[in-house]
Amino acid sequence: MSSVDSRISIRSFRDGDEIAAARLFDESLAGFVGAAPTTPDSWRRQHQVSWRSPVLGEDPDCFRVAERAGEVIGYMVVECPCRFEPDLAVIQELCVADGEDADQAARLLVSAAEQLATGRGVAAIVLHLSHEHGLSHRLAAAAGYGPPEAGTGVFMAAITNLPTFLEEIEEELTNRLLASKVSDWQGVVHLVSGDQSAKLLLADRRVRVMERDDGPAFSVEISPEVLAPLLFGRTSVREAFLQDRLSLSVRDDPAALAVLDALLPRVPIYLPMSQWW
Amino acid sequence: MSVPEVRSKSRGEWKRVYIETDGREASYLGYGPFVFPVGRHAAVRMAGVAGVGTRPEFRRRGFAHRVFARAMEEIRQAGYSCAGLYTGTDIVAHRLYRRFGFVDIVVHQPAVKLLDASAFLSLRLTRAISAAAERDQSIADWNCYLTIALPDEPPMSFRIEAAGVHVPDTPPGRSDLTLTTGRSVLLRLCYGVMSPGFAEASGLLCWRGEAEHWRRLSAVLAAQNPVINEGTL
Q: Any idea what the CATH number is for the domain that residue A232 is in?
């Protein structure tokens, strides 16, 4: 099964395509929270054992690639029909290379999924993509998909050890600080949320979790219900502050809020279904 | 009556926490390690919780609460910095998870396209009506010509009879109930995530015809279980 554009062709997945798929996946989702980086091996493994995704090798038509001049520039994974909703097909992954052909390749891949669904007697199709991803958002609207529905499926998280969490993301925090206008700020930020607390030392343009009990430059009281959303980039410091769910020991200090803004920005999220558990 | 103890066992990297009665697991969950990226330069070690459940005959005894409390204690002891799970916002367990410090991080927002609206509606309505007919004889005996009008499309005709929905080969020339609404509202109604009463009261749906037919259709749609993600249950 294949459809052909003047420059881009769509075909079923072949052995070896996982090299391009893993690269496209990582390029498309770089900087997103939630999508674990993949290697060709891990990409293949995820699509061979996932309880939720079509299985590579069993149904090759559910895995399509877009090719231009022999180069894979996009791929798509569609569950058709959906195991839990047989009257639906679900486009679970759609990744295309940046470039002038990106929209066209994505549209052709979606069109291939729709043809597959129609051919299999499936009456509706779902795009399970991030609405925070520009191309996905444009594509959904252009291809006639309804506006994102506020569904009832939800991913929830709890912070069980704040100091350990912050230690695990020290490098990310340092990079965020370096990319900000307050990269030279020095001091200690004491984060307190319910019965958890941790201190961050910002010095020499680095962020580290402190173990010794030095006095803080300022402390931040975070309501437990916004701790995880803040740490996973789902709410901003300003939003939590305005909602009175975050307070600072130093009042009227724009530098303190700027430091927190830099360390805990809002970040787009995407949880690929092949990585659900 | 003695209170059954909460037990825990390993299955490779996964742990299973459960309460057993009469040799069967009455309440249970599993958790295991996942690498969860937080930006370009870091990932956290997350305990992924899945397969949470309590057999119906053992519900309302606090079993799930005790199993979850034990699992969260083990997760902390094992040094996980965080825990995550997939669930639905409309099930009782959502409240349980919140009690243990879980908060909604992202609500999935799928975008939907109807490829064959008529086939989709007859399938969804048949499913909803046959489920309702098991509890309500008036639904089982229901006969109705239904018309659904969506913007920019010819009206679709359906025949409801014998607890099923059929698409007539030829337009029936009559309609006992006609609904006019948008695709998005219709999808929400079909998936049980919007109540018919709300759609009507908000002006998102208009109907004309016999009130009794609308009452039955509303009851059928409102009685659906919303689509939820049950994880690896």
A: 3.30.1050.10
Q: Considering the entire predicted model, what is its pTM?
A: 0.82
CATH classification at residue A60: 3.40.630.30
Query: How many angstroms separate the CA atoms of B96 and B67, rounded?
Result: 11
- With tokens 């201190």, the residue in question is A199
| Residue A268 domain-assigned (yes or no) | no
The total of structural domains in chain A comes to 2
Domains of chain B: 6-99 (3.40.630.30), 117-222 (3.30.1050.10)
Question: Rounded CA gap, A172 and A167, in Å?
Answer: 10
The confidence band for B96, taking pLDDT boundaries of 50, 70 and 90, is: very high
What is d(CA B191, CA B211) in angstroms, rounded to the nearest whole number? 23
Could you tell me the pLDDT band of residue A146, with boundaries at 50, 70 and 90? Answer: confident
pLDDT, tens digit, 9 for 90 and up, residues A152-186: 688 999 999 999 999 999 999 999 999 999 999 99
Residue B3 touches partner A, C-beta closer than 8 Å: no
- A56 vs B69, higher pLDDT: B69
Q: Do both A94 and A187 map to the same domain? A: no
Which stretches of chain B are DSSP H helices? 63-77, 92-99, 117-133, 137-140, 183-190, 196-201, 211-222
Put simply, the chain B residues between 76 and 95 with a CB less than 8 A from any chain A CB are: 76, 79-90, 94
Chain B (188-217) residues lying within 8 Å, Cβ to Cβ, of chain A: 188, 193
- Kindly tell me the burial class for residue A70, based on how many C-beta atoms sit within 10 Å of its own C-beta (0-12, 13-18, 19 or more): exposed
Judge: A155–B40 Cβ closer than 8 Å, yes or no. Answer: no
**For A144, nearest residue in chain B (alpha carbons):** B113
Q: Is A195 on the interface with B (CB under 8 A)?
A: no
Q: Give residue A165's Cα distance to chain centre.
A: 18
Query: Which of A100, A131, A152 is the last residue before a domain boundary?
Result: A152
Radius of gyration for the alpha carbons in chain B, expressed in angstroms and rounded: 23
Among candidates A146, A107, A154, which has minimal Cα distance to A124?
A146
B174 sits in which H/E element = none
A169 and B38 within 8 Å at the Cβ level: the answer is yes
Confirm whether A269 is domain-assigned. no
Tokens 């018309």, residue located? B147
Q: Which of A152, A178, A205 is where one domain is finished?
A: A152
- Prediction ipTM score: 0.86
Quick check: A54 and A83 in contact, CB under 8 A? no
Q: What is the span of the domain harbouring residue A45?
A: 3-152
> Looking at the structure, do residues A11 and A126 belong to the same domain, yes or no?
yes
- A138 with A196, same domain? no
Average per-residue pLDDT in chain A? 89
A99: Cβ contacts below 8 Å, ≥ 6 apart: A73
Whole-Å CA distances, A217 to A224, A231, A248, A253, B38: 22, 21, 11, 11, 26
Residues A35 and A107 in one domain: yes
